[in-house]
């Protein structure tokens, strides 16, 4: 059996056991009315919880198309774990609620299936799931951070290749290298696309930071980030790294990862731009794509 499979099963066993121990301590669903038989029902809860956990892994792998993988990085693992909890929690709650209806309702009529009982069970299981999620996140925090640092190191290597290729004699490109950015008013900014550093959203305006005569200049345009994205969509090296920032990857000096956050160090102005988790994949893909095109 593969090491990853063993680790998955071990994780599910520990998580399910945590849930059952919590139920044994608080004895919801009228478990205290069953005396010693309550432990038999708790064992049944364990089987239900473990089985549904394994079923959720199958759903993630074949339906959601998110197999368990450490090679895809910490961001992928965190996103997959959130999906796991989102799918698994209501399924476990439903399984236990049905068990309450068919097995536990003999002595406790309040266990009969109803929307109220399902919501009650869902809240209890969601609390257990949240506590378990915090435990695993703390336990694997150092491992996640190490993976993020390794990802950052590899991306910086790709970024250096990209910068080296940009510094070479440019090949013929279909897009014009001089561009005029306009807003909803008469203001406009004309610049060499390679001189664009980044664009920042500021209220109803955008700040266009670019080089002019080897100096950093900032121009304000009354426009939205969506308008800027549409104007620059033909330039794949310019990507959205955050809801408030568009960045020219050709002007990124280094990618910095610290305490779970990622930032881009911009050349010339030496400012750090944040990279949101939702945009990290886009930044990574753009760097690799540009390198593959340049090769």
| Rg value | 26 Å
Helix/strand/pairing class, anyone? alpha+beta
Please work out how many helical segments DSSP would assign: 7
SSE order, one letter for each helix or strand = HHHHHEEEEEHEEEEEH
Strand order of the largest sheet: 5-4-3-7-6
- Per DSSP E runs of 2 or more residues, the count of β-strands stands at 10
The major beta sheet can be summarized as: 5 strands, antiparallel
Could you explain how this protein is built, in words?
- With 295 residues, the protein is of the alpha+beta class.
- It contains 7 helices and 10 strands.
- The strands form 3 sheets. It has a 5-stranded antiparallel β-sheet. Strands 8-9-10 form a 3-stranded antiparallel β-sheet.
- A hairpin with a 2-residue loop joins β3 (196-202) and β4 (205-212).
- The chain is elongated.
- The two termini are 40 Å apart.
- 25% of the residues are buried.
